[in-house]
Amino acid sequence: MVNHMKSVLKKVPHYVWWILAIVLLIISILIFYFFIEIPVIKLNGKEQITLSYQDTYKDPGYQVKTKVLQKNIKSCIKTKGNVNTKKIGTYTITYTCNYHHRTFTKKRTIKIVDKKNPELTLKGDNPIYVCPGKELQEPGFQAIDEYDGDLTKNVVIKKLEDGSYEYQVKDSSNNQVIKTRKVEYKDITKPTITLKGPTTLYLTVGSRYPEYGASASDNCDAIGSNNITIKNNVNMNQPGTYSVVYSVKDKSGNESSVTRTVKVSRPAYSGKGKTIYLTFDDGPSGDITPQILDILKEEGVKATFFVINHGSSLDYLIKREHDEGHTVALHSYTHNYGQIYASESAYFNDLRMIQTKVKNIIGVAPTLIRFPGGSSNTVSKFNPGIMTRLTNQVEQQGFDYFDWNIDSEDAGGASSSKEVYDNVTSALRGGNYIVLMHDFSSNYKTLNALRDIIRYGKAQGYTFAALSHNSIKAHHGVNN
Ligand SMILES: [Zn+2]
Question: What is the CATH topology of the domain spanning 275-464?
Fold first, then answer.
């Protein structure tokens, strides 16, 4: 059998062997190129990349070489897919190489994540004080996440065992923030205490001290005027300046106090005389002054107007004041404290200007004056000692200056005509009084109280008069 095979092969012609050898060679080459020498895709960098939201993504690239001969065939690659770093998610980039009608691929995954915590802001104080036994009034909070936006509605509030509050918020990527607001159940705020009646009381020796009292309140405790302690060392038989101190304490020991100044002086005219000198500063005004003049006329009362310059259109009112028997006196041309108290010459320049103006209207030059702010003013302290010098110099130059011993407070503390009325009438103790009031524009408080004040005074037996060189001056103590 074997011998038979050998004899058959010997009969095969040589060229057949050659053909066979060539066919085998071709098959080997084809197998090499199609199945062995294939592209190998290698990615630069990692195949899985994690990035934060809003980072920038740059593809790290790739290498492609054939497996055996290491031939660079990078240009065969087509990439597909993109990455949106503004949106959380997993993105895939596919690298595809078509090589000899076969397709080779490699993938890279990119994860975009939100690693940033939301921003949680607590409004109001931290630590915050809450009245003992009371609950916290939530002062507010805000939670903003860079990715999710406003998360304020998702904030969870928890009261802790020690009474503090915990605020917790999570974003859609489970990034969590916790903040604590420390709450101290303590009253650290002082009570409020306010004087009733005037801050400065002008009284005459031997009269009765009127106690107007004060009112008080507290942020935590129920506190009223009966919790107020009054320290009073006023001696009504001894002229002088006294302080009455009103103090109040809340349950937590916070204390507040206010002081009333009481000036006790001897009556200008001992014994005889019950006179009220109504004085009106800072006018004239087109709305108030004519009505005041009407009331004074109807009540048959004379008063004093310490005028300032309001331009020529109101000159007729200065003339009317004079014509109707009132005293027109000088207050200031400008009423500008910074200007008139800058120096003695500045003061006298201003005073001469208003004096000349009034003289041109009524024909006589007034020499009765009142310092803006009164002789006791402290607004002039920027120029130390100016009031001490001016009070002497005005008298040397023939002027008489007037202060007051009743302040209606119509330019200050009084908020209604009733308060103006009370401030004036309650201070009347049977002597001689200069009453400070104002007829500047819109001062209806005084206008509406005026007739009642006059009638009260008349009923108490007072005479009303305009100031003259012979009347009381009610000089204050000079404070500068
Ligand atoms: Zn004034």
Answer: TIM Barrel (3.20.20)
With pLDDT > 90 as the criterion, what percentage of the chain qualifies?
81
Q: Which residues are catalytic?
A: 281, 438
Residue 210 DSSP symbol? P
Local confidence band at 1 (pLDDT 50, 70, 90 cut-offs): low
Residue 102 Cα, ligand 1 centroid: separation in angstroms? 105
CATH class of this structure's domain 39-113: mainly beta
Question: Strand pairing partners for 240?
Answer: 264
CATH number of the domain located at residue range(s) 119-184 in this protein: 2.60.40.10
* Pairwise CA distance, residues 157 & 247, whole Å: 41
CATH says 192-265 is which class?
mainly beta
- Give the Å distance between the CA of 372 and the centre of ligand 1: 5
CA of 367 from ligand 1 middle (Å) equals 17
CA of 281 to the centre of ligand 1 (A): 5
For 3-60, write each residue's pLDDT tens digit: 787 887 778 888 999 999 999 999 999 999 888 889 999 999 999 999 998 899 999 9
Give distance in angstroms: CA of 331 to centre of ligand 1.
7
290 Cα–ligand 1 center, Å = 19
Burial label, 340 (beta-carbon count in 10 A; 0-12, 13-18, 19+): buried
Dihedral in degrees, nearest 10, Cα atoms 359, 365, 369, 373? 30
For every residue of 41-53, which 3-state class applies, written as one string? EEECCCCEEEEEC
- For 452-474, write each residue's pLDDT tens digit: 999 999 989 999 999 998 789 99
Cα(373) to centroid(ligand 1), Å = 6
CA 384 to chain centre: 34
Q: Look up residue 471 and give its amino acid.
A: S
Segments of 25-135 assigned E as strands: 39-43, 48-52, 62-66, 77-80, 89-99, 102-113, 119-122, 128-129
Pick the closest to residue 369 from 344, 336, 397, 388 (CA basis). Answer: 397
For 141-168, b/e burial (b = at least 16 CB within 10 A) is bebebebbeebeeebeeeeeeeebbebb
Every domain range in the chain assigned CATH 2.60.40.10: 39-113, 119-184, 192-265
CA of 306 to the centre of ligand 1 (A): 8
Q: Tokens 């500063």 sit at which residue?
A: 281
**Backbone φ/ψ region at 408: left (φ over 0), alpha (ψ -120 to 50), beta:** alpha
Helices (H), 331-416: 337-340, 344-362, 386-396
The string over 29-39, giving b where at least 16 C-beta atoms fall within 10 Å of a residue's C-beta and e elsewhere, is eeeeeeeebeb
Give the span between the Cα atoms of 255 and 49, in whole angstroms: 66
